[in-house]
Design goal:
Distance between the termini: 22 Å
Number of helices: 2
Strand content: 35-45%
Largest sheet: 5 strands, antiparallel
Helix content: 25-40%
Radius of gyration: 14 Å
Oligomer: single chain
Shape: globular
CATH architecture: 3-Layer(bab) Sandwich
Order of helices and strands: EEHEHEEEEE
Structural class: alpha+beta
CATH class: Alpha Beta
CATH superfamily: Archease domain
CATH topology: Archease, Possible Chaperone, Chain: A, domain 1
Number of strands: 8
Length: 136
């Protein structure tokens, strides 16, 4: 489960999940919901493999979201489904989506950057919670 929340001039992303793999997938979905008005408009026709090295969970989440934002900004890719495997030394993921189609993919917010502000990945009773602020 994820949610967007207002944060001064920025936007917050927050998610909870039963395990850390699902948490990183939820945060990716949350980022896509921040970028697109209707993330369900994205057809999962192309699978993109992503590998990121890192041992710190917070920095790994930052790099994961930054990679997805880069693929949106530079390659004009939008995603709707994610499968993530977080390891001690990084993550391996598959993101399914398609090229941005401005007629079908209406933009919600212009996410300029992922920030370190209030970045957290913490265990909770029965699961995990993550939060990050994005610059809009």
């Amino acid at each position: 489960m994820y949610e967007l929340f207002e944060h001064t001039a920025d936007l917050g992303l927050r998610a909870t999940a039963p395990n850390i793999d699902a948490l990183f997938a939820e945060m990716a979905a949350c980022l896509c919901a921040a970028i697109l008005e209707d993330p369900t408009s994205v057809r999962p026709t192309i699978a993109e493999s992503i590998e990121i090295a890192g041992t710190d969970r917070e920095f790994l989440l930052f790099d994961w979201l930054k990679e997805l934002l880069y693929r949106f900004d530079a390659e004009h890719q939008v995603f709707s489904r994610f499968e993530v495997s977080v390891r001690q030394d990084g993550l391996t993921a598959t993101a399914w989506g398609e090229p941005l189609d401005p007629e079908r993919h209406l933009l919600n917010h212009e996410v300029k950057a992922i920030t370190y502000h209030e970045l957290s990945v913490v265990p909770t009773d029965g699961g995990w919670r993550a939060e990050v602020i994005v610059d809009i």
